[in-house]
Amino acid sequence: MNLAAARKRAGELREMIAGHNHRYYILNQPVISDFEFDILLNELQTIEKTFPELVTPDSPTMRVGSDLTEEFRQAEHQWPMLSLGNTYNENDVTDFGERVRKVLGYEPEYVCELKYDGVSISLTYEDGRLVSAVTRGDGTRGDDVTVNIRTIRSIPLRVTAPGAPSSFTIRGEIYIPRGDFEAMNAERQAKGEPSFANPRNAAAGTIKLLDPRVVASRPLDCFLYNLLGDSLPADNHYDNLMAARSWGFRTSEIIDRCSSIGEVLGFLSLWENQRKGLPYETDGVVIKVNSLQAQQLLGNTAKSPRWAIAYKYAAEQAETELLSVDFQVGRTGNVTPVANLRPVLLAGTTVKRASLHNSDQIDILGLYYGDRVIIEKGGEIIPKIVEVDMTQRTDDAVRVVFPHECPECGTPLVRNEGEANHYCPNYLHCPPQITRRIIHFVSRKALDIEGLGEETIELLWANSLIRNVADLYYLRHEQLASLERLGNKSASNILAGLNKSLTAPYHRKLFALGIRHVGETVARTLAAGFPNIDALISASGEEMESLPDIGPRISASVREYFSDPDNIEIIRRLSAAGMTFEGKAPAVAAKGPLYGKTIVVSGSFERFTREELKSLIEAAGGKSAGSVSGNTSFIVAGSDMGPSKRAKAAELGIKLVTEAEFLEMIKE
Ligand code: IVH
């Protein structure tokens, strides 16, 4: 490669890496695996090594990825939070051992731990209390997510064990156990909410949520793996972790001391399969030099310590042939490419299809029809294509191109800035979007219409008996009974089910309409705020946004839906068939326990800082104010509340509540 070609390629790689970093750390929507990411980064590193003049200070090889967001206060790490060098083969582990031995002059003891697949967190304790929990961020500064981390039960808020130093930092990995993850996704699917791709993404997204009550409802857990401080109980990593365990921290039972790299390799092969039976996801092993003094001697590079390395297990793979690609259009118009494969056995199941995620993924792979492809089962449930065997490609092979138009209705596809997906904007007239919306309308979570499932809807559609949800209510018994697969009895059942649905609760009808961004909770909020559909149809964006949790994205979508005469006609025909669109939703989920209240926080507190209490007030639907006035509903009063505020409160007869009483109020 000459300099000009290297410069061009380095530019391309930097752009791709920056995009993937953003998807991974900020959007929590990676489109490639860590393995594929490392291949890109390695290629860039190799170019920069060969042509050092191409290295730029902002090259992604110069820094660890950043998860910083704007919503949280940032906090500086007392010790930088480094990442680890990754290796994928045993030779690299042996080389690591060689490098270590060369510096130290002897073979040290190593500690092997599993590499938990979650998000790292740094917890700081002062005077035995948890005072901050900060994400890795850019390694120097991270997001202060303390309010969220306090909701994790396995993280002690106070450490009172006699041997524990009064101040220390402990780091670990936040994760969601596999079983809890599946249950959570099933629940989200049932509610019409999008599923998380894998437990890691779910954990990463959750710790950055702005409402700690939602965080508390998610099954987060944490393994601690690194103790830092000026007065540690022991001079080695292993004993320090054992001490931390005795103080009440959760550390893994799977941790071994190895007296040679040979023993380390034994640990790697032992856990390669055993780890699959664990209730949480792991993607490798972290190998650490045990002695803290030896760690100091070895030191760090700008990015990672020289005393530790991560060995990553390769995901299970198989090779097969790409037969064709379907571009599937979902209920909300998202177009998902799905590869049809020659059936092949992978990790115990026959695989016929693989997810291709989106157009970026197809471009990265450079796929051609008929390619021999390597598929992999990683954290995701559906396998994916990770590599193409170029050597087997024939000369006349045809490239897979992501369509510019909707494969179902021909409308030009749209890709919004910052989003990975293309979608078909013709949601009113694109056939699969309509049928999937009708299927949604009759589904259990929506109107739960007996006798009408996916197959029957497809059958009615194929026979041109329905074109939208209103048509369902004008079906006649003989039309249904004469269809093959249906008979008199089914026809009667369906008509009875439809009849019953006319009187379903109003908020379920709103949810059933399938308006983009209107899930179950939003539908309840809208039903509570607008007691009939005419009020909702004529509501302004501002009026909608005055309701809790309704923002411009939702209000714009609702207004767009009602601005289409076809939708108004559907509602008119549903009403003419006897469907009522009125009534108040039980406002359970819509308003927080402090809705409509203005609260002042004053003084210092046991569990939370003032700022955290203010966030909790807002999360519970209340407003926090700086000064006491006639509008103040009550004051959360700490130990040293200011005397002028106290006097004013007494004068106006405003109630003072303690921190504990306040927490009780927002417990729900
Ligand atoms: S020790 C100086 N131990 O892997 C690095 N890290 O790629 C200290 N991780 O940021 C990290 N399991 O989020 C360590 N048993 C373990 C780990 C672990 C997972 C993560 C951690 C770190 C990343 C490095």
Which keywords apply here?
alpha+beta; Helix Hairpins; 668 residues; binds 2-(butylsulfanyl)adenosine; D-amino Acid Aminotransferase, Chain A, domain 1; 24 helices; 5 domains; 5-stranded mixed beta sheet; OB fold (Dihydrolipoamide Acetyltransferase, E2P); 6-stranded antiparallel beta sheet
CATH superfamily of the largest domain: DNA ligase/mRNA capping enzyme
Strand content: 15-25%
Ligand types? 2-(butylsulfanyl)adenosine
Low confidence ranges: none
Return the structural class.
Answer: alpha+beta
Query: Helical element count?
Result: 24
Instruction: State the major sheet.
Output: 6 strands, antiparallel
Into which percent range does the helicity of residues fall? 25-40%
The pLDDT mean sits at 88
CATH topology grouping of the largest domain: D-amino Acid Aminotransferase, Chain A, domain 1
Distance between the termini: 63 Å
CATH C-level class of the largest domain is: Alpha Beta
The counted number of beta strands is 21
Instruction: Using the 3D structure, state the CATH architecture of the largest domain.
Output: 2-Layer Sandwich
Task: Report the C-alpha radius of gyration, rounded.
Answer: 29 Å
Shape: globular
How many structural domains are formed by the residues? 5
